[in-house]
Design brief:
With 279 residues, the chain is α+β, with helices and mostly antiparallel strands. It contains 4 helices and 15 strands. It is globular.
Amino acid sequence: MGKASSNKKVARAASTSGGRTAGGRTPWIYYVSIISIVVLGTAMVYFSRSHRLSQVNTAGGASPPVVGQDHWHEAYAFYVCTAADKGEFIPVFPYQTDPEGIHTHGDGVINIHPYEKSAAGKNAVLGVFTKVTGVTLNAGELKIPSFTGYGGHDYHDSDNCGGTPGRVQVTVFPTSTTTSGTLWTKDPRETPLTDQSMIVVSFMPKGAKIPPPPQANIDAMLHPLDVPAVAAPPDSTSTTVPGATTLPGATTVPGATTTTAPGAPTTTVAPAATSTSAP
């Protein structure tokens, strides 16, 4: 009897293989729970990503600077301490290109003309520029890339600055003539970039006066090289200098160009021929 009973138990155990319980039932609750967890996790990841993309697209939507439309210029500088109450500007960054549309031409100016929504609207921030130039910038650190000639200096809050603890800070100057800027108190990477304004990233003691960028940077912003000059009207073929005289009785040949110098007679030149008229 003992042996027969053992054989029955083995047979029952074998019959429960393949996912059945000891009672011979399929554990549907277990399988449904696993599937539900997988589906819910996938849905949450998808929703989170979609929400983030929605935020980026909304921020980079119709608000300026607009992709393919706006072209802004902002003078910038990096200012580091040489004493407790004195600092110096580091050299400007060399020409940079980027896939998003926020870069510099090596003239001390940030060019802001977004190619992508990730650099447009509210996404047009200082962090996009520092990423392109290789600068490490956050609430407590400023690391300058070595190509500026500073050898990759790395500044941290509380580092010595002429015997006084220094701090990483960003100062914003709203116009090209502003001499006293406003301290940005949030994450420095989130500092908004704006048109015809100025921005200075510095490592100086708290409360130190931060000057605006050098005048050369400001001039480059006011007269950017990447904006074409206004062409002269196509029909402006005559230049007259004040005080010039015209020879009495002289005539002008159609299509000729006329140039007069102070106190000199006028000579008119016809196409493919030269003619001087006298009384």
